[in-house]
Amino acid sequence: MKSSFDKIIDSDTPVLIDFFADWCGPCKILAPILKQVKEEMGDAVKIVKIDVDKNQTLASKYQVRGVPTMMLFKNGKQLWRQSGVLQKNDIVNIIKSN
User: Fold this and answer.
1) pTM of the entire structure?
2) How far, in Å, CA of 58 to CA of 8, rounded?
3) Residue 49 forms beta bridges with which residues?
4) Domains of the chain, with CATH numbers?
5) How many helices (H) and strands (E) does the chain have?
6) How far is residue 80's CA from residue 84's CA, in Å, rounded to a whole number?
7) What is the pLDDT of residues 42-64, one digit of tens each?
8) Where are the disulfide bridges (predicted)?
9) Is 85 exposed, middle or buried (0-12, 13-18, 19+ CB in 10 A)?
10) Starting from the edge strand earliest in sequence, which strands make up the sheet with 46-51, in order?
11) Which among 19, 23, 51, 94 has the fewest CB atoms less than 10 Å away?
């Protein structure tokens, strides 16, 4: 049976996953940037935030060692992954190029 995470990433629409933690400074910087990405791209992307402290199994499955780590999925496949904070335009370009 598919997990709810598998259902989320198994989508024709690109899904940007943000692995974050409440105690992480860079994660707090990234949050409003992702909000801007969503405002610019609207329904062309889904953005899902995953708290690594509350979802340790998922974080370890995807070998998330540092936060923030973003991953882009489409149709259940991981297309891109990067740790750290990126600017809005960089994130938008990555989503559009995939």
Assistant:
1) 0.95
2) 13
3) 18
4) 4-97 (3.40.30.10)
5) 4, 4
6) 13
7) 999 999 999 999 999 999 999 99
8) 24-27
9) middle
10) 46-51, 15-20, 69-74, 77-83
11) 23
